[in-house]
């Protein structure tokens, strides 16, 4: 068994698609109609056959509440690995990304947390 798709709730699929592709650099894999929303998945440019990230609308009241509470409590919804966290931090800062935690050494890893502008905090990690 392996993870093939994981999802995050987003407030606006178009805004999320723009942020995750143009700012973070992910590649759109699927973008198909699904009722009033779309099935939008992204992949890493370095692993286009790897795990897909689904930009899932937070239309359900429970999803909105879940997303809102995690954000308010400062809890990242997911984590992405990076090769050089300081370089990635600088690159994202230059693109206007707001960080809630600068690169911080935590034992064997260094982490940072940023706002994805779509209702989520995202953690990046270098091991």
UniProtKB/TrEMBL annotation:
- Pinpoint the VOC domain residues: 1-127
Name it: VOC family protein
Organism of origin: Gracilibacillus salitolerans
User: Which SUPFAM superfamilies does this chain map to?
Assistant: Glyoxalase/Bleomycin resistance protein/Dihydroxybiphenyl dioxygenase (SSF54593)
Please name the PANTHER family in this protein's record.
Answer: GLYOXALASE/BLEOMYCIN RESISTANCE PROTEIN/DIOXYGENASE (PTHR36437), GLYOXALASE_BLEOMYCIN RESISTANCE PROTEIN_DIOXYGENASE (PTHR36437:SF2)
User: Which Pfam families does the record associate with it?
Assistant: Glyoxalase
């Amino acid at each position: 068994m392996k993870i093939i798709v994981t999802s995050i709730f987003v407030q606006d699929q178009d805004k999320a698609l723009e942020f995750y592709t143009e700012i973070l650099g992910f590649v759109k894999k699927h973008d198909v109609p699904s009722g009033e929303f779309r099935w939008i998945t992204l992949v890493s440019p370095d692993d286009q056959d790897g795990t897909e990230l689904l930009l899932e609308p937070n239309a359900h009241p429970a999803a909105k509440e879940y997303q809102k509470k995690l954000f308010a409590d400062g809890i990242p919804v997911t984590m992405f690995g990076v090769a050089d966290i300081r370089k990635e931090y600088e690159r994202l800062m230059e693109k206007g990304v707001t960080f809630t935690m600068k690169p911080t050494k935590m034992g064997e890893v260094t982490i940072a947390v940023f706002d994805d502008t779509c209702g989520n905090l995202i953690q990046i990690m270098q091991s």
